[in-house]
């Protein structure tokens, strides 16, 4: 292992266990604890990826997940971030976005034509002619994609978890650790969250070799380990900050929804690269990246280094290099000057050039040397490593999302948070505090304040520990006549691209971002936004504050779709007859939250099974479970008034023992629900709703009762009552053997309701005609429902009974032309369009949506009609939602369609413009494959237009009952 | 997680509630002009303010009225709906 160093005091690797994996066809050996990038770098690899647009060679930049230079993929996972992901033993990794291989990427040819690809090129070049755009889009997507998604991959879901704490501390660097301890000492529960596998933060890589801090480090870590009320969550980052301190914590095991009463943001700062020619050559990296590489993984960043610095941290990095045997050839100081670390650097004999400026990095496949100027005099040095330490940008997403503002501090040359929202605190480097001792004090006061806020105690004044010198370069951007100075490494954005955007008028930060795509890649601006803002401010002559910043919305860091999807926790409701359905080979479907039998698989195929069920209802008798209907009971003095107000038909004049169709519209006149209402007594109604609307209808009705101030009680009895519909010519004969109720037409006419016993239990019977045969809806308590069902089925054997499912019912009701709300109606359909003007009683003084319906009646443009298909060919079958075309224009759509076994025709319902709604009008339906088929408008019902079968004469029933 | 303290129920997660719209006095259907009705149905002023809103607690089936600031999303008062309906919005 060429670049592996001797053991480091705080290293994360376990040298006793090695890990082997394959990268671009080569076997790589690393240690347990290595990330992919560190193992590659240790083995001498420098080219770890290719850039998005120009396919330039890329190595390490931030080595902290602030860039995506090292983006890999395995056979089943795209977008593996090499800088933070540990390799799996035996896994094969490949760089994304290469054509051929990483070493020989044909895509790199794009760079030769890059001068013809100015900023905004895609928007302009491919805009016209429009018909070519799909072709270009495919090409661009192929060229510029990041990894390949294999759609045959299996579904992966990570559970979401909930956690609660008093104080959440984001970031476990020195100030975060101190904050957690200070809060915990107040007796509150603390969660300390860090994106790394270990706590410690910059204390463990930037100050790894500061012997004076060893005691401090041990103190902090030991105390945290010992305190029971500090929960440490590592390898997890806060991806979103939502209202009321609700944090989305992305852990490797899935999303944690963390609810905290106070939050301390100790997220620190992102190191920002310098912008100069060829700053993306492998070997040029942030100083903190080099320090992470050495301290955590014991890997030397290079053999001979040059350090470009604007702050003391660059000198600290140089000392770390020296300690690990790397030759530091020079410090290029762009304005930092004397500091506590510059003295030992100079003592070590390292040349320090003040007033330095970087001109360019040189090298073919990786860095071979730098060209720079000192006091304007151009010089050069050979080196294989260039460390950039020119400044910091706040890791401010949690604070921005919490609603705090940032303002530019001209002494620090850094954005600092202002006006923190209630219950939110910040400390450490994000607060502009750079000395470790100060960071700890700042953390302590923030942690203490966060705990006191939880306890509703007053918070003492804060001491200001903000640094008094600059830690960032005010403008770390050095333009070169030949260009290739990269600001955004994700998107290959150079200075000229941003200049071009500004010159074309996109001189607002939000516009510049969208036009140039700066900050829009997977890094979301972590390494590029600050330099973009500085450049824009300079070119427009504005201050940093005037220039502003784009908003980092949640999820501020890319989050796996499997994390967001979470586990599927949808409740499933089962009807009381579910066990029967299972035994009877039911194929279930979801209807709202319910599982309902779609059909019973009794025949060789789905179609044959459904046809047999339909035939049973038409010729003998069938039984369907309708327990999923919403069932509401209405009691009280104002019951009739409520029913009148809720439904479009008059309900108050219903006789006791009658039933009536109940159609509901909203304020805008759109059909939202239908069912059947019955009247038990003057002040007692019972009404059904559609399966999927039972909860929302109940909720809305309760609200209306309050609004209208009515004396009425509404109960949702959906789960307490089981219901079934017994339908078919044999239904009366069958039922008469199970109840004492007089079922004759005189005693129990069509649409009447009766209460009596069935199979020994109390029941409500309603004579309904939904499927178009003599039929009885039977409602009994849920605990009796299965018993009644079983008795009917048992006795029904001699009447050739069959249970039937939702699909047979749909076909049966289609033959009758009955609508299903939500299928034949949509979010705009009113009762007139649904061809149900008879269901609207305008004589009532008041009902929901009346003024809208009065108006809509005069504005009708479309109507639901029945049609039959003129072609009988099997592959000419339209689908629901297929369009109806007339003279090239859309004039309607199919809402229901089915092959009627009873009628031997394909019939359907369609919502069409009035002009083509006359009986015998020809409709042209466009199939999904583009072919046209003909149909003609026919009268509904298709089956038994006079309704003789649902209200047969006694004589037709063979003298039964 | 957002919590809200309700009469009788105490501190409950907001996720147990369903939003039911702003409390709005329904226009008199008899006296209303077409324009007024259209405005009642379709025009909703979205300017941020503190307003009274319907919130339904699903586990208990109780409607509450919240005073909520739509800018800060802070809930300043919670009443049982049948007691606190002011119809002044």
TrEMBL record, chain A:
Instruction: Cite the InterPro entries for this sequence.
Output: 2Fe-2S-bd_N, BFD-like_2Fe2S-bd_dom_sf, FAD/NAD-bd_sf, FAD/NAD-binding_dom, GcvT/YgfZ/DmdA, GcvT/YgfZ_C, GcvT_C, GCVT_N
Question: Start and end of every FAD/NAD(P)-binding domain?
Answer: 166-434
Name any one Pfam family assigned in the record: GCV_T_C
Q: Which residues form the signal peptide?
A: none
Chain ranges of the GCVT N-terminal domain: 577-844
- SoxA A3 domain boundaries: 482-566
UniProt KW keywords: Aminotransferase, Oxidoreductase, Transferase
Task: Tell me the ranges covered by the Aminomethyltransferase C-terminal domain, including all copies.
Answer: 862-944
Q: Which PANTHER family match?
A: AMINOMETHYLTRANSFERASE, AMINOMETHYLTRANSFERASE, MITOCHONDRIAL
Q: State the similarity comment.
A: Belongs to the GcvT family.
Q: What is this protein identified as? A: (2Fe-2S)-binding protein
UniProtKB/TrEMBL annotation, chain B:
Question: What InterPro entries has UniProt attached to this entry?
Answer: SoxD, SoxD_sf
Top-rank lineage group of the source organism: Bacteria
Q: What is this protein called?
A: Sarcosine oxidase subunit delta
């Amino acid at each position: 292992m060429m670049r592996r160093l001797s053991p480091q005091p705080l290293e994360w690797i376990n040298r006793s266990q090695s890990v082997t994996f394959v990268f671009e066809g080569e076997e790589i050996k690393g240690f347990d604890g290595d990330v992919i990038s560190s193992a590659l770098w240790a083995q001498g690899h420098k080219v770890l990826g290719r850039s998005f647009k120009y396919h330039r060679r890329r190595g390490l930049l931030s080595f902290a997940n602030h860039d995506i230079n090292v983006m890999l993929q395995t056979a089943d996972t795209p977008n593996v971030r090499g800088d933070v992901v540990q390799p799996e033993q035996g896994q094969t990794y490949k760089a994304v976005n290469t054509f051929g291989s990483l070493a020989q990427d044909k895509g790199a040819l794009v760079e030769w034509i890059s001068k013809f690809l100015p900023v905004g090129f895609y928007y302009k070049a491919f805009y016209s002619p429009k018909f070519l755009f799909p072709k270009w889009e495919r090409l661009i997507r192929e060229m510029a994609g990041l990894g390949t998604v294999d759609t045959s991959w299996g579904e992966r879901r990570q559970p979401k978890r909930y956690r609660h704490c008093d104080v959440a501390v984001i970031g476990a660097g020195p100030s975060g650790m101190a904050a957690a301890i200070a809060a915990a000492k107040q007796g509150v529960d603390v969660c300390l969250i860090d994106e790394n596998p270990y706590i410690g933060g910059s204390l463990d890589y930037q100050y790894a070799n500061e012997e004076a801090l060893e005691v401090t480090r041990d103190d902090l870590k030991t105390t945290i380990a010992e305190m029971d009320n500090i929960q440490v969550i590592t390898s997890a980052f806060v991806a979103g900050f939502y209202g009321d301190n609700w944090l989305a914590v992305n852990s490797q095991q899935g999303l944690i929804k963390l609810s905290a009463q106070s939050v301390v943001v100790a997220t620190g700062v992102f190191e920002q690269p310098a912008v100069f020619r060829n700053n993306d050559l492998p070997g040029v990296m942030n100083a903190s990246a080099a320090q992470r590489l050495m301290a955590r993984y014991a890997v030397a960043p290079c053999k001979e280094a040059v350090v470009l610095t604007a702050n003391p941290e660059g000198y600290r990095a140089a000392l770390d290099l020296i300690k690990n045997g790397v030759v530091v050839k020079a410090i290029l100081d762009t304005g930092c000057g004397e500091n506590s670390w510059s003295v030992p650097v100079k003592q070590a004999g390292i040349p320090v050039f003040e007033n330095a400026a970087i001109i360019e990095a040189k090298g073919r496949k990786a860095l071979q040397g730098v060209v720079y100027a000192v006091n304007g005099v151009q010089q050069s040095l050979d080196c294989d490593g260039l460390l950039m330490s020119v400044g910091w940008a706040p890791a401010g997403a949690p604070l921005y999302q919490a609603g705090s503002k940032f303002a530019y501090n001209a002494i620090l040359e850094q954005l600092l948070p202002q006006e923190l929202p209630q219950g939110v605190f910040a400390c450490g480097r994000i607060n502009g505090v750079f000395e470790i001792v100060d960071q700890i004090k700042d953390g302590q006061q923030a942690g203490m304040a966060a705990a006191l806020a939880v306890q509703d105690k007053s918070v003492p004044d804060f001491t200001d520990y903000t640094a008094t010198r600059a830690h960032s370069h005010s403008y770390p951007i050095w333009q070169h006549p030949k260009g290739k100075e990269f600001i955004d490494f994700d998107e290959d954005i150079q200075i000229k691209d941003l200049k071009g955007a500004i010159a074309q008028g996109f001189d607002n930060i939000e516009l510049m971002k969208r036009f140039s795509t700066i900050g829009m890649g997977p890094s979301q601006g972590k390494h590029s936004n600050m330099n973009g803002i500085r450049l824009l401010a300079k070119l427009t002559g504005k201050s940093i504050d005037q220039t502003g910043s784009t908003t980092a919305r949640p999820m501020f860091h890319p989050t796996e779709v499997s994390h967001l999807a979470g586990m599927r926790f949808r409740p499933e409701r089962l009807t009381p007859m579910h066990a029967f359905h299972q035994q009877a080979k039911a194929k279930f479907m979801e209807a709202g939250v319910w599982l309902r039998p779609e059909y019973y698989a009794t025949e060789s195929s789905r179609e044959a099974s459904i046809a047999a069920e339909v035939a049973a209802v038409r010729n003998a008798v069938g039984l369907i479970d309708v327990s999923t209907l919403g069932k509401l009971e209405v009691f009280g003095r104002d019951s009739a008034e409520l029913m009148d107000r809720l439904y479009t038909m008059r309900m108050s004049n219903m006789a006791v023992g009658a039933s009536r169709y109940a159609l509901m519209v909203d304020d805008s006149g759109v059909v939202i629900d239908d069912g059947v209402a019955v009247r038990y007594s003057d002040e007692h109604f019972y009404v059904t709703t559609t399966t999927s609307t039972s909860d929302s209808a109940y909720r809305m009705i309760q609200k209306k009762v309050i609004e209208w101030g009515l004396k009425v009680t509404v109960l949702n009895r959906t789960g307490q009552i089981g219901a079934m519909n017994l339908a078919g010519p044999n239904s009366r004969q069958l039922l008469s053997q199970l109840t004492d109720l007089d079922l004759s037409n005189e005693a129990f006419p069509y649409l009447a309701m009766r209460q009596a016993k069935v199979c020994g239990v109390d029941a409500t019977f309603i004579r309904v005609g939904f499927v178009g045969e003599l039929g009885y809806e039977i409602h009994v308590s849920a605990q009796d429902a299965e018993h009644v069902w079983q008795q009917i089925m048992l006795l029904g054997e001699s009447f050739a009974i069959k249970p039937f499912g939702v699909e047979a019912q749909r076909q049966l009701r289609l033959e009758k032309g009955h609508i299903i709300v939500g299928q034949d109606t949509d979010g705009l359909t009113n009762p007139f369009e649904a061809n149900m003007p008879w269901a609207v009683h305008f004589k009532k003084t008041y009902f929901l949506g009346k003024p809208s319906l009065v108006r809509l009646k005069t504005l009708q443009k479309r109507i639901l009609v029945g049609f039959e298909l003129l072609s009988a060919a099997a592959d000419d079958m339209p689908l629901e939602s297929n369009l109806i075309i007339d003279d090239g224009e859309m004039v309607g759509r199919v809402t229901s369609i089915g092959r009627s076994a009873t009628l031997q025709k394909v019939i359907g319902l369609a919502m069409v413009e009035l002009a083509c709604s006359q009986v015998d009008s020809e409709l042209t339906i466009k199939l999904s494959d583009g072919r046209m088929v003909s149909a003609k408008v026919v009268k509904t019902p298709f089956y038994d237009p006079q309704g003789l079968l649902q209200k047969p004469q006694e004589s037709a029933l063979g003298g039964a009952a | 997680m957002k919590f809200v303290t309700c009469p009788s129920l105490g501190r409950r997660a907001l996720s147990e509630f369903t939003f039911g719209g702003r409390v709005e006095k329904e226009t008199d259907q008899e006296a209303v002009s077409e324009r007024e009705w259209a405005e009642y149905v379709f025009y909703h002023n979205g300017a941020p303010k503190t307003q009274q809103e319907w919130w339904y607690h699903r586990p208990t089936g109780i409607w509450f009225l919240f005073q909520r600031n739509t800018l800060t999303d802070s809930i300043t008062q919670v009443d049982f709906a049948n007691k606190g309906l002011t119809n002044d919005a």
